Amino acid sequence: MKCNRYIAFMLAAAIFLFLPLFASCTTSQSGQVYSSDQAQRSLNVYYGTIIELRQVTIQDRTSGGGAVVGGVAGGVLGSTIGSGRGRTLATVGGALAGLAAGNAIEKQVGTKPAVEFTIELDNGQTMAVVQEDGAYFRVGDRVKLLQGEDGTWRVSQ
């Protein structure tokens, strides 16, 4: 019986330790990072001047995977506590706590600081673009805007 509890505890601990690694498999929305399917594609190029910069947050959509994994791990860990009715309560409580923790971890990992650029193009049009990086840009900087075939935009110097 002790061996089963030890295995359950180790399994739950492993899931909690590796959950942030799985949840962090998100794509970059930086102006300097291209995915492999974006390479060697034509881009429309526009030029303009930054007229405003604003700090914003990008929140990835949550898949629910963090909650599921956390719930399972919490339930397994809770099942190692007590016996009889106490074990049942500990299992349910562990599952609920794990569910909440897994969901919170997934949300936290999917939150990224970003910058909203407001840019006046040379043709007089004004547009806004949001991307992850932007610390090295300043209001008044001349920038290049790249429009991908898929409708995405990125700001570059």
Q: H/E order of the elements?
A: HEHHEEEE
Total helical segments:
3
Q: How would a textbook summarize the main sheet?
A: 5 strands, antiparallel
Mean pLDDT: 76
Q: Distance between the terminal alpha carbons, to the nearest Å?
A: 63 Å
* Low-confidence segments: none
Helix/strand/pairing category? alpha+beta
Alpha-carbon Rg, integer: 23 Å
Subunit organisation of the chains: single chain
- The level of helicity is 25-40%
* Shape assignment: rod-shaped
Side by side, the strands of the main sheet go 3-2-1-4-5
Number of strands: 5
Structure description:
The structure is a single chain. The chain is an alpha+beta fold. It has two domains: 77 residues, no CATH class; 76 residues, Beta Barrel (OB fold (Dihydrolipoamide Acetyltransferase, E2P)), CATH 2.40.50. Helices cover 39% and strands 27% of the residues. It has three helices and five strands. Strands 3-2-1-4-5 form a five-stranded antiparallel sheet. Helix 1 packs antiparallel against helix 2 and helix 1 packs parallel to helix 3. The longest helix has 25 residues. The radius of gyration is 23 Å and the shape is rod-shaped. The model has no long low-confidence stretch (mean pLDDT 76).
